[in-house]
Design brief:
Distance between the termini: 53 Å
CATH superfamily of the largest domain: Aldehyde Dehydrogenase, Chain A, domain 2
CATH architecture of the largest domain: 3-Layer(aba) Sandwich
CATH topology of the largest domain: Aldehyde Dehydrogenase, Chain A, domain 2
Structural class: alpha/beta
Number of domains: 3
Strand content: 5-15%
CATH class of the largest domain: Alpha Beta
Number of helices: 8
Largest sheet: 4 strands, parallel
Shape: elongated
Order of helices and strands: HEHEHHEEHEHEHEEH
């Protein structure tokens, strides 16, 4: 997934630019990842901890290609076969570690797409809730952030804004509305209490409506559940 995120199309806006590595994974997972990336021609710009570990386990040629990362690298969209690597320091809990990663991403990232690779569902959900990006993935490539892959049809753009569109944008995402009413003299005061009734459809409140056949049954359910919650 990491190799795909970086190398399948390095110039894409959903390409991987920074790899955050849990300190416990420096000697277990990172060496194999670094070898795979190096074989694809990816240049690694590492912090001191990750560089020290990789320099001791990679072959001489690969180790010689390791570079020191600058602070600027962690907020750079390289659009090339270059990847910044940073260590998430060991902490007392996994929650604290993932919070550090989230804080780094929210400060340095583009708010486009970010992903976490983990077998821990709770940690993945914490990451997905905390990262302020248009796409936040769990155990999949960042390159999956694409309108066509989302089923939007032809992608016409990408947005990291929160209004009007966010994430991959298809034609529907660019659509605005123009409302036309063909009336027969209606006014707003014709409707409401004691006047004409709207043709609005009542929607179920929570799951009460799934069990109520009419308004009387719905009211009985409300009162019963209120009494069970001690709010009656």
């Amino acid at each position: 997934m990491i190799v795909d995120s970086k190398t399948s199309y390095p110039a894409a806006c959903n390409s991987l630019e920074t790899l955050l590595v849990d300190e416990d994974a420096l000697t277990t997972s990172l060496p194999a990842v670094a070898e795979a990336l190096s074989s694809k021609g990816v240049s690694l710009r590492c912090d001191q901890k990750s560089k020290t570990v990789l320099a001791s386990v990679l072959d001489r040629h690969q180790a010689a290609l390791l570079q020191d990362a600058s602070e600027e690298d962690y907020k750079t969209e390289f659009l090339d076969l270059i990847l910044a690597v940073k260590t998430v320091p060991k902490t007392s809990t996994s929650e604290t570690a993932v919070d550090l990663a989230v804080a780094h991403i929210n400060e340095h990232g583009s708010h486009h797409t970010d992903a976490i690779l983990t077998q821990d569902k709770a940690i993945a959900q914490r990451f997905q809730e905390g990262v302020d990006s248009a796409g936040v993935f769990w155990n999949t490539s960042t390159r999956m952030a694409d309108g066509q892959r989302f089923g939007f049809g032809t992608e016409v753009g990408i947005s990291t804004n929160k209004i009007h569109a966010r994430g991959p944008v298809g034609l529907e995402g660019l659509t605005i509305y123009k409302w036309k009413i063909n009336g027969e003299g209606q006014t707003s005061l014709d409707y409401g209490s004691g006047g004409k009734q709207w043709k609005h459809q009542k929607l179920p409140i929570a799951d009460h409506g799934a069990y109520a056949r009419n308004e009387d049954e719905l009211e009985v359910l409300r009162k019963f559940r209120a009494s069970q919650n001690g709010t009656a």
